[in-house]
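Hi, here's the filled form for the chain we discussed.

Project: internal
Contact: R.S.
Residues: 96
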Amino acid sequence: ANILTTLPRPAYREARELIVKSVLSTDMKHHFDLVAQFKARLSSGNFSLMDDEDRAFFLPLAVHAADISGPMRPADVSKPFAVRLAMEMARQGDQE
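And the returned structure, exactly as it came back:
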């Protein structure tokens, strides 16, 4: 189900763009660029989550951080997720 269908068209596009950007931010090829951009924004002294642009930048960064933090969890928590991820990747490989 599309949870965004009740939004006005401009809000729908904005929400969808942010969701897509957040999902794509989990790709590790963006890691160092994301970290560098975040450091630059923080060092500018003007970073604020009250600012729409900064908030739109921060959400994909937070999703990326959550994505890569899994292995830091205790083994009894992280191992089941790692097993499911490996199974999902194998299924994707089979489909391709």
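Let me know if anything looks off before we file it.
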